[in-house]
Amino acid sequence: MNNKIKWLLKKNISFIKPIAKKLVSKNQKKYIYTWRIMLGKVSFKELFLNLEFFRDEYPGTFLSAKLYRKMFLKSDVTFAYNYIYPFDPLKIRFLPEGITALVSITPDYSCVLKSDLRRIKQEITFHNEEDKFVDTVYGIIDAVEAKADKIKKRQSCNEREHFLSAFFPEILYRDCISLDEAIQKILFYNALFWQARHWHNGLGRLDLILNQYYIRDVELGIETYESAKRRLKDFCLLLGYHTKFKSPGLIGDTGQYILLGGIDKEGNNVENDITYMFLEIFTEIKVPDPKLIFRVNDKTSTEIWNLCIKCLSNGCGSPLFMNETLIMNNMVEFGYEREDVWNLGTSACWEPLVIGKSSCQNNPFKSIVLCDSLYRVLKKGRDFYSFQSLLLAVKNDLAIEVPLVIEDLNYDYSPLMSLFDSDCLNKGKDFSHKGTKYMYQGVQLLGLPNLVNSLLNIKKYVFDRHLITLDDCLNAIANNYEGYEDLRLLFLGTSDEKFGSTSAEVLDVCNQLIECVSHAIEPLRANGNAVKFGLSSPAYLFQSVGSPATLDGRKSGEPYAVHISPISSSIDINEILRFAGRLNYPYNCLNGNVVDFIIPLSYQKQPEKLVSIIRDAFSHGLFQLQLNMLDRQVLVDAKSHPEKYPDLVVRVWGFSAYFNDLPEEYKDNLIARAGIYETA
Hints:
Radius of gyration: 26 Å
Strand order of the largest sheet: 5-6-7-15-14
Number of helices: 29
Structural class: alpha/beta
Number of strands: 17
């Protein structure tokens, strides 16, 4: 069979999909994994000998915990970059139909490092003798201990691997006593989270968490700055070892973020040697996965700002910046308690949550395509005698459509995550089933720049100048601009009145739309909890497929605009940052509001100018920022000659990836945007 498949692959790559379907039973319907494996991730021998599926028919029960144990024991262990990592991508847990995977979670690794499984078993709250949660927790602890015992008994000729194996299972029952132990314990549990199918699980605030172990080692003469930095470098490289397997969508979109900076529980700013090490490591190794996020405030030092820009200039796409003061204030108003938000983290890319107290699912729904409201209004054929009456009709349509996206979902259980959440253990409830303190859900808006520019075009050319009619606009959409090329050029033309401009009129239209969505979402509940929304969505390409044209000149099927980003060459980085700082972010508009901009490589020669621009923007209300420092000609050449650019890293929606790993449409989108911004 192997030779037959190989022959088919050589003949026609399209045969992969049906073969993959046959390799996986029909009731599982998860052939995508096998498909990706066939595309070169592992050899055929490894595939047929090691691929195994574990169907979890009873999530959240003792039977499920037993399945975890079986899966953990059958899964292989990786030793690479001087650490042990017990994640086996060929051992795959499947969920029953109707169960939504629990993803985009950041466990509190400070609790993980201090955890003692024996004490957890002793202290867990008993509600009655047949308590399902307690039985499941006992079962999952048994599964974790079994995995640790397997690591302990591994035969290895490698001295370093043998040394690390001796940590187990003892480190499961105490706090770590060194940086080396802390790194290994994080990697052990991180691998198990992935094995349990909790995709997009982040690493959290590692400079805050690891610093105490590093300081102790330095005082004892065990570590130096350079030796600790080498350990952290190995840690990062190992996290990226399975990037292709950890990416449920595009390669690189793993959600593995390391959060730096920000305040601690006492309000002190976190800037220590570990902070510097991570920034230096990412500047030197230039890898897309994991990624960095930096929490900034008015106390963030100039030295740290300079290091961040140096890291960005390297082309790794990290870090993404978060305005922690603004975000924390919005979180408190939304419903998080002030005493908790100091430990602000993100789900995967940018969506805020509280680390260690949240099972928030911030991206479980389809994004809300704002442009569709304008199209629906125009198709109704009403006469509008003013722009404001049209805008009101669009807002009314949005108010009706927004609630249709939100729904209750039946989430997977996570006894593994429950181990490290004190609220779960005290309540006797699972992490995703009323155990955690917070389980809000979120949704994202898509195409705000496209809708705003469409409305501004209508105002200018229909109501102000009377050059065209609303029927002309509707016909242009219906015909995808065929026969209306002159109208498309008119809409695409540069103007001072475009999304991203600090014009009062542009800001007013934007803020009216944002406020409309805020009011529409405010009364909604998902699984009994409030819902938040954000202006940044990863769906700007895949939800644009088959979509109608829009009145900003965008044709049917072309990508929507990316996040809070201009689609006009007349708006430079200074203006878009000022614009984003002047947007109104209602209390429930906190699910990611990212300015995404591609800046020219010339900024590498004047980093102090970029630092000044960004610091000023955050002091004036900028929410979040991610930057690509790219040259359009390099991207064009890389697409034509990929072999010349094996290490070219680019920022996509909220993650970084190798340019060569991206689908063609994403490459084209980056090239087009780089062309717009290089003339800004």
